[in-house]
Amino acid sequence: MASHDLKESIKDMMVENLMLRTPREEIADDLPLFGPEGLGLDSIDALELVVSLEKQFGVTVPNSDVAKKALATVETIGDYVETQRATAG
How confident is the model at residue 1, as a pLDDT? Predict the structure, then answer.
């Protein structure tokens, strides 16, 4: 499970880099990021999110299959970042 600080950093990155109108405080860790029942991000947002993850956290998302799983929620992004850091280190 991703640390609280990491998840807060991810939310800050998303609000800033994706220019979200939703404040960080309103983004739940398990809120779906894509689709109408969640935050409503689209494929352009997904690409920006992948670039931002690489810049800020030094992790890459190699393909769309991995992206679908890793970028589902703030929680899954945090878990992915921690897993990638552990395997790289």
Answer: 79
